[in-house]
Amino acid sequence: MGLLNVVVGIEDPGKAWDAFVAAASTGHLMQSRAWASVRSDTGWTPIFLRLEDGTGIQAAALLLRRRLPGTSIGLLYMPRGPVLDWNQAEQVEQFAGALRQVACEQGVFLVQADPAVLEERVDVHDALTHMGFQRVEKQGLFRILQPVHVMRIPVDRYGGPEGLLAALPHKSRYNIGLAKRKGVVIVPRTDRDALRMFHQLLLQGGRRKGFPVRSLRFHEAIWRHCVQTGLGEYLFAEHGGQVVAVIQVLRFGPTAWFMYGASTGEDQNLMASYLLQWTGISRSWAAGCRCYDMRGVVSAKPSPEDPEYGVYEFKRRFNAELVSFLGEYDLVIGPRAYAGWRWLEQTVQRPAAWSYRLYQKLGGIT
């Protein structure tokens, strides 16, 4: 492999970027141009770094820059990136040099990454370590990265939704049918009113169950840049003309993601959540997706005693398989600032998390 051309900029790199990311084995929605626009609307500055040769893009990384409040320094974050051929040592080496150059030019003290690479890829871990990254574990408010453990349904392995349905546990098939028999109807929507209704249900569920909810600004950005551009939709479960539950599904390349969901609490006896997910799987397959990602679970080895075990069990009932990624990595550019960052994380994490939960229960999350 010869020396590749390094291209860096904040300008839209065009459709070739999405085509490369979507086709890569480690490509992800969060390395797409649409996601760059989402994060641009929510306080981050997207920077597109790519290595090219005469045939096109060979490596890419969407870098999100954010300045720390009250300072002149910031950090870079590669959500589910970078996207490159980890078997090409020269490519990895050149990418590492280009990344450090960008980090220095941007005046950041830290580069964070959580590549969409499976945990068993020890060679990729070694490559990241060689690049200067170190694996870290963060919690709560300071953890801006993505789930390490997710549940995925390889729908193509079953030949499509009908093959998957035949292979589901009897109880899952029964619950899908029961929802239909009880009159639950699934309505796909992409309009602005659907966005607002969806977010209101999220807020109600968050306050009821005590979990944080992203702001309307964030969800409106997803609606504008993903849903309105054909990369996703909201699925509403209605019963007797009333909405009882809703999920958001986003699609990019061969994968669909169940991103967020909420219910009124009246859907449990109706089994609406089963029909919602089944509809999400079926419609994603029809749109060209071959994998349905149900997103995160807390542990790689869930046990019935775990408070979140019910989430894992529900996803498993759709034959979703637990997949673990390598995890979170930090590339330290400014050691002193990074030491202060880690100290702040450890010092204020607990009271900050407590305050955040109280604030939400009082109705302050908007």
Topology, element by element:
Elements (H helix, E strand, L loop, with lengths): L4 E5 L5 H9 L9 H8 L4 E9 L2 E12 L6 E5 L10 H18 L1 E6 L8 H10 L1 E4 L12 E5 L7 H7 L2 H12 L3 E5 L2 H18 L6 H12 L4 E8 L2 E11 L2 E9 L8 H15 L4 E6 L12 H8 L4 E4 L3 E5 L2 H27 L5
Parallel strand pairs: 4-5, 11-12
Antiparallel strand pairs: 1-2, 2-3, 3-4, 5-14, 6-14, 7-12, 7-13, 8-9, 9-10, 10-11
Helix pairs in contact: 2-8, 6-9, 7-8
Name a few traits of the molecule.
single chain; 366 residues; Aminopeptidase; 2 domains; seven-stranded mixed beta sheet
Mean pLDDT: 91
**H and E string:** EHHEEEHEHEEHHEHHEEEHEHEEH
- Identify the CATH class of the largest domain: Alpha Beta
Q: Output the CATH topology of the largest domain.
A: Aminopeptidase
Under the CATH scheme, the architecture of the largest domain is: 3-Layer(aba) Sandwich
Tell me the major beta sheet.
Answer: 7 strands, mixed
Write up what this structure looks like.
With 366 residues, this protein is α+β, with helices and mostly antiparallel strands. The chain folds into 2 domains: 5-146 and 326-361, Aminopeptidase; 149-324, Gcn5-related N-acetyltransferase (GNAT) (Aminopeptidase). It is 39% helix and 26% strand. A 7-stranded mixed sheet has the order 1-2-3-4-5-14-6, with helices on both faces. Strands 8-9-10-11-12-7-13 form a 7-stranded mixed sheet, with helices on both faces. Helix 2 packs antiparallel against helix 8 (216-227). The longest helix has 27 residues, at 335-361. It is globular and about 60 Å long. The relative contact order is 0.15. The model is unreliable at 355-366 (pLDDT under 50).
